[in-house]
Amino acid sequence: MTGQVLKTARLEAFSDGVFAIAITLLVIEIKVPEDTAHLWEQLGHLWPSYLGYVISFLVIGLIWANHHAMFDHIASADRVLLFLNTILLMLVALIPFTAGVLASALRNHEGERTAVVLYGVVLVAGGLPFNATWEYARRGHRLLGDTITPDEARTMSRRFLKGPLLYGVGTALGALLPVLGIIAFSLLIPFYWLPPLTRRIKT
């Protein structure tokens, strides 16, 4: 059954569901202040949670946008592709946890380096099955449709491959100085948001 060719509709629907749940769970980390007598002050103390929420929301969003662009060209799937996509989703679902750890470390001023490195490692790890999914689908135009040429597919590969490398650099910077890692992750958001949005979106 491993060679069975499948349609991608259910895979994409399941993936969209996981992305939607993961991105929604991020708001749970933002706790409602109990001391409403000093509400502005209490809301201000929540800035690490706001930071983790914004960065992680946009990161998950850009992963979804790239995933959407990728499956705009993947016409069919098999069991291997399903497995690779599942590993990707497993790591996406872990991002809300790492965002919470990061916010907690920043709020308590303890463990910031470990929290930033953990956050970066999950992003790097997520880039591996993402790239593996695309590389598996495009090799020999195995699972791609006629919406993209082999040369265009290679161009997308080069763009996708930069992701884990750049997040790896951000993680290394975070290991040296946590704020540098956070800045690097933040700067990669606009860098990676722009290219996918220029591509055709399926309706």
Task: Give a written overview of the molecule.
It contains 8 helices and no strands. Helix content is 74%, strand content 0%. With 203 residues, the chain is an all-alpha fold. α6 packs parallel to α8. The C terminus is likely disordered. The protein is elongated and about 60 Å long. It has one domain.
List SSEs in N-to-C order. Answer: HHHHHHHH
- What is the percent of helical residues? over 70%
In total, the number of domains comes to 1
Global Rg: 19 Å
Count the E strands. Answer: 0
Query: What is the CA–CA distance across the termini?
Result: 31 Å
In terms of DSSP E residues, the strand content is: under 5%
Question: Would you tell me the overall average pLDDT?
Answer: 90
Low-confidence stretches: 196-203
Largest sheet: none
Number of helices: 8
Structural class: mainly alpha
| Tertiary shape | elongated
What's the short version?
Belongs to the TMEM175 family. With 203 residues, the chain is mostly helical.
Sequence-ordered SSE layout with sheet pairings:
Layout: H1 9-25, H2 39-44, H3 47-71, H4 79-92, H5 95-108, H6 112-138, H7 150-176, H8 178-197
Helix pairs in contact: 1-3, 1-4, 3-5, 3-8, 4-6, 5-6, 6-7, 6-8, 7-8
